[in-house]
Structure prediction request, 183 residues.
Amino acid sequence: MSESTAPAALSEAQRAVHDAIVGGPRGSASPFPITNPDGSLVGPFGLMVRFPALGDPLQALGAALRYRTRMSARIREIVILTVARMADSAFERYAHTAVAQSLGISDHEITALLTGRFASDDPQESGAARFAEALMENSHAPSQDFGLDGELIAEVVTTVGYYRLLAQLMGQFEVAAPGEIDA
Prediction:
């Protein structure tokens, strides 16, 4: 990204998005760094700041998905890591591997999610993973095939769509995961 998103270079609208991200639950509870040393935001957060008219509602939706849904944190990370794998999103693999580890999801389970071999004894976890895969492959799936109730179906569909959108934005603007060289 060529445009600086360091706090000193931000417009008022950009600063509002930056502050909402840094001052919200992501800023205080993230298991991975969300800022660079200059204060600019990493990954999709930098794009949200760069394009505040879209970024503000996106960051609010992301916060709702991460912190205000009924879906368990494990199911949420299972869905996100499934999307990360299928969308080939390096940043989401990086970030949500850290989130999953902080929740106690085992390295074996994370590897299985990132290689498409995930299985769980919990029918909701297995169903959510299979449903997320089906949505990534077809954009629609017969939800009755996955053993999830209506609210969980809506939350999984929204989570898949949101993280697919972030992956596409980062791909389009060539946003790398920390430690990778920006293309």
Remarks:
- The chain has a mean pLDDT of 93.
- The two ends are 9 Å apart (CA to CA).
- DSSP finds nine helices and no strands in the chain.
